[in-house]
Amino acid sequence: MSGVRDKQFWDITDSFIQLANTHLNEVKPSRVSACALFAAARFNAFVITAASASKEQFIAEKETAIAYFLEQYENMLRENLDEHLARYDQHGS
Questions:
Q1: What is the C-alpha separation between 5 and 89, in angstroms, rounded?
Q2: At CB < 8 A and 24+ separation, what contacts does 37-46 make?
Q3: Domain that holds residue 19
Q4: What is the pLDDT of residue 4?
Q5: Where would I find the beta strands (DSSP E) of 1-93?
Q6: Is 42 helix (H, G, I), strand (E, B) or coil?
Q7: What is the CATH number of the domain that holds 14?
Q8: Chain CA centroid to CA 5, Å
Q9: Which string of DSSP letters, residue by residue, matches the chain?
Q10: Using an 8 Å Cβ cutoff, are 1 and 75 in contact?
């Protein structure tokens, strides 16, 4: 995934985080997180559907796509948790 992380990648990522942060005045972080996860799942379902040439291809590749996105999310979550852990004593929770 690191090959995808150019300036545009970080700019888009930061824009999503900034948008999520705007909701923190009204909603608990856990709710914002749940909404972000659902939005990512909904968008990725759209991406998978749009990439399928047919319903048959969609059905055939569905489980592979799910496995891919689950693996990507786990890797990204672990990487970000490790980053936060490395800075934990500097910034607290």
A1: 27
A2: 44/69
A3: 2-91
A4: 76
A5: none
A6: helix
A7: 1.10.287.3020
A8: 14
A9: -GGG-SHHHHHHHHHHHHHHHHTTTTS-HHHHHHHHHHHHHHHHHHHHHHH-SSHHHHHHHHHHHHHHHHHHHHHHHHHHHHHHHHHHHHH--
A10: yes
Structure tokens at 5: 């992380």
CB 32 within 8 A of CB 24: yes
**How many separate domains does the chain show?**
1
Q: Would you give the distance in Å from CA 16 to the centre of its chain?
A: 10
Per-residue model confidence (pLDDT) at position 90: 85
Backbone angles phi, psi at 75, to 5 degrees: -60, -45
> Which pTM was predicted?
0.83
| Cβ pair 16, 36 in contact under 8 A | yes
In the chain (93 residues long), the average pLDDT of successive 10-residue segments reads 80 97 97 98 97 97 97 97 93 64
Length of the chain equals 93
CA angle 70, 71, 74 (to 5 degrees): 85
